[in-house]
Design goal:
The complex is a heterodimer of chains A (about 280) and B (about 375).
Chain A (H helix, E strand, L loop, with lengths): L6 H29 L10 H5 L4 H31 L2 H12 L6 H12 L4 H8 L12 H26 L2 H9 L4 H12 L1 H17 L2 H6 L7 H11 L4 H29 L1 H5 L1
Chain B lengths: L4 E12 L2 E12 L3 E5 L6 H9 L6 E6 L2 E2 L10 E4 L11 H11 L4 H14 L15 H13 L5 E5 L7 H18 L2 E6 L2 H7 L2 E6 L2 E6 L1 H6 L4 H6 L4 E9 L2 E4 L2 E4 L9 E7 L4 E4 L6 E10 L4 E7 L2 E7 L8 E6 L5 E4 L23 H11 L1
Parallel strand pairs in B: 3-8, 3-9, 6-7, 7-8
Antiparallel strand pairs in B: 1-2, 1-4, 4-5, 9-10, 11-12, 11-14, 12-13, 14-20, 15-19, 16-17, 16-19, 17-18
Classes of the chains: A mainly alpha (about 280), B alpha+beta (about 375).
The complex binds adenosine-5'-triphosphate (ATP) and magnesium ion.
Chain lengths: ~280, ~375
């Protein structure tokens, strides 16, 4: 049922609408405009036509983001479960440990990984001290990039899942046990299905920054791992007349990718309304 | 009825946050028995069931199942199923899958699951609801799904925590008969919790009356009704006039200012006691023929009888009679010796007054003047 808003309520929304128009809708229109014009500001499909040259970069970005999201889910779910089921005092400590890195800027966190994994870094110094001659080459590999994504974005997976597990009513676990379900069976038959909403928001919150990152791949990829974020950044940095237009076209594709993944998530959570209704 | 003890609680004590909820409770439940735990809200009924089901560990005492101590056996290994007070249906599963949950876990063949679930839904009046999610059902429908989900597993023991509380009167009566029939047919031991005394009396083999974490009385419905052990039980089960009295000697009780012949004995000479007289056991007679006389202060038509409140020396009695008497008239009352039930004094003595503030809500607040009157009467 729709309620009529009073004048005051409508006035209160004005700053918000102005904000959205200026900083969200406006830039998107610019992206659209640049994507479909050439350097003479003439309407053109040439930028879109060039996108094929970047298909391998798109594929790599999607692949890395998928792997990072999957690993975050595999690590994050048990971690969130353990946190939600432990004593309140333990929960508080674990929560602080989880949140602590998030107080530090993403750039610095990524740098710290670089320090750790570099040829002259902590791990390799240790290996050297243990008698290894050649440094273990980690930086510059896909492994390092995915590791960076996992390290940076894991808390975004854990938090929503933790919230939905702690909200789960103990009655359902007791009912499952009453019907003969083992504790492990209960996790799969009751806890997992009832925390799907938490999983979905965790997946979205890790997948979206992973697919659009450029900093992690630059630092940990050692310049050899170009992801879509890097390509876009490079286009805009070049600031040649044409690069802006290609960059906008690439951005458009990325936005569509993110939109599609969000739609898929919504579709799944609609199909499973049970968990949300509790 | 089989007399083997199936479940035994021995010295069970349980406290929450320093508050004792169950106090040194002993209880034996026989195989195939229908036992009802009856008591006011908060007396520890659910806690008792949860200890049997394995969801709470007692602070002291032991739980035995079939002679084996099961204190440390987790809930999922116990041969017990529960109809929870708050249903606890799985919100992500539809009615069919909720009911089939236990059978799937015990690897019952698919075809058999289907027949048993269908049968159970049929019995609980839920046919056609298979595909519905619990959140789309009414309270009474959810409650019936909860019954079906537990009963379909045919456990040794079924724990039912107020399983009919959300149903309307007619449906509740039907389900009472249905549950009783199933219990007979399957021989499943039922441990049933209710605070509806009528339900307890009509369904059970054995009634366990609880108050403040202690068992007050265990017995058949007739025993509990006819021979309550203290003022609490007398008051909680049915209507009672509870008076202060004195046992002058065996079979001689003095109350309401008179000495009556009764059938009880075994008290000290002149021992103070509580006297219970049920409203339906008092006969209305002409004043000159009565053992007691009093003035009618109110008359309520109850369908097949009249409920009248009679003031006898300041104490208001409740009496059920089939003949109409007009308010404000004085009537005589006669009581048979076997209608006088004598009880030892207990911690509950004096807590239940007369019917001076009686209302339809069974508001048994004692009136200080009436209490005075009763005491005088007992002198
Ligand atoms: N987990 C708990 N934590 C603290 N107190 C509890 C807990 N469970 C029960 N209690 C307390 O124990 C007492 C007995 O509770 P219980 O649920 O056994 O009562 P009940 O007889 O089933 O009552 P009702 O008829 O209202 O369901 C109550 O005072 C209740 O507040
Ligand atoms: Mg209860």
């Amino acid at each position: 049922m729709k309620k009529k808003l009073s004048l005051l309520e409508r006035m209160a929304a004005v700053p918000h609408i102005v904000w959205i128009a200026l900083f969200i809708v406006g830039p998107m229109l610019f992206v659209l405009y640049f994507a479909f014009t050439d350097k003479n500001n003439q309407f053109s499909f040439s930028n879109i036509g060039q996108l094929g040259n970047y298909s391998h970069i798109f594929l790599l970005s999607v692949l890395f983001a998928l792997i990072a999201t999957a690993v975050c889910l595999l690590i994050g779910y048990p971690l969130a479960y353990f946190m939600a089921r432990s004593k309140p005092s333990t929960q508080r400590i674990l929560m602080i440990l989880l949140m602590l890195p998030m107080w530090v800027s993403l750039l610095i966190r990524t740098y710290s990984l670089l320090v750790l994994l570099d040829n002259g870094g902590l791990i390799n110094s240790l290996l050297k001290a243990m008698g290894r001659k050649e440094p273990l080459k980690i930086i510059g590999t896909g492994f390092a990039v995915v590791l960076g994504m996992i390290y940076d974005f894991l808390p975004y997976m854990v938090l929503p899942i933790y919230t939905s597990i702690s909200k789960l009513d103990n009655r359902y676990l007791e009912a499952a046990a009453d019907l003969g379900c083992t504790p492990v069976g209960t996790i799969f038959r009751v806890v997992l299905p009832l925390t799907v909403p938490g999983i979905l928001s965790g997946v979205t919150m890790v997948f979206v920054p992973s697919i659009s990152t450029f900093y992690i791949s630059q630092k940990l990829g050692g310049g050899k791992m170009e992801l879509i974020g890097d390509t876009i950044e490079r286009q805009f940095k070049q600031a040649t007349a044409n690069a802006y237009h290609v960059g906008a076209a690439l951005s458009l594709v990325m936005m569509i990718l993110i939109l599609i993944s969000t739609l898929i998530m919504n579709k799944i959570s609609d199909g499973d309304e049970g968990g949300v209704l509790v | 009825m089989n007399q083997d003890v199936l479940i035994k609680l021995s010295g069970i004590t349980k406290a929450f946050d320093g508050e004792t909820v169950l106090d040194n409770m002993d209880l034996e439940i026989h195989d195939k028995e229908f036992v009802t735990l009856l008591g006011p809200s908060g007396c520890g009924k659910t806690t008792t069931l949860r200890i049997i089901g394995g969801f709470e560990t007692p602070d002291a005492g032991d739980v035995f199942f079939d002679g084996e101590r099961i204190n440390d056996v987790p809930a999922y290994k116990r041969q017990v199923n529960t109809v929870f007070q708050r249903y606890a249906l799985f919100p992500h599963l539809n009615v069919y899958d909720n009911v089939a949950f236990g059978l799937r876990l015990s690897h019952v063949p698919k075809a058999e699951i289907e027949t048993r679930v269908k049968e159970m839904l049929e019995m609980t009046g839920l046919r056609g609801f298979e595909a519905r999610k619990p959140s789309t059902l009414s309270g009474g429908q959810q409650q019936r799904v909860a019954i079906a989900r537990a009963l379909v597993n045919q456990p040794r023991v079924l724990l039912l925590d107020e399983p009919l509380g959300a149903l309307d009167l007619k449906l509740r009566k039907d389900m009472q008969n249905e549950l009783k029939r199933i219990q007979h047919a399957t021989g499943i031991t039922f441990i049933y919790v209710t605070h509806d005394q009528e339900e307890a009396l009509s369904m059970s083999d054995t009634v366990v009356v609880m108050s403040r974490g202690k068992i007050q009385q265990i017995g058949t419905p007739t025993d509990i009704y006819n021979e309550p052990v203290n003022a609490f039980v007398a008051d909680f089960i049915g209507e009672s006039n509870i008076l202060d009295g004195i046992m002058i000697a065996d079979k001689q009780a003095k109350f309401a200012g008179q000495t009556f012949v009764c059938v009880d004995g075994g008290f000290e000479p002149n021992e103070p006691v509580d006297i219970v007289i049920r409203p339906e056991d008092v006969d209305v007679v002409p004043v000159e023929k009565g053992m007691l006389a009093g003035k009618v202060s109110s008359v309520t038509f109850k369908g097949d009888y009249y409920e009248i409140i009679v003031d006898i020396r300041g104490f208001k009695w409740m009496i059920e009679t089939s003949d109409y008497v007009a308010p404000e008239t004085t009537i005589g009352l006669s009581i048979d010796p076997d209608a006088i039930h004598v009880m030892k004094k207990s911690e509950y003595s004096g807590m239940f007054g007369d019917y001076s503030t009686f209302s339809e809500e069974m508001d048994h607040l004692s009136d200080p003047d009436a209490g005075q009157g009763a005491e005088e009467a007992a002198e």
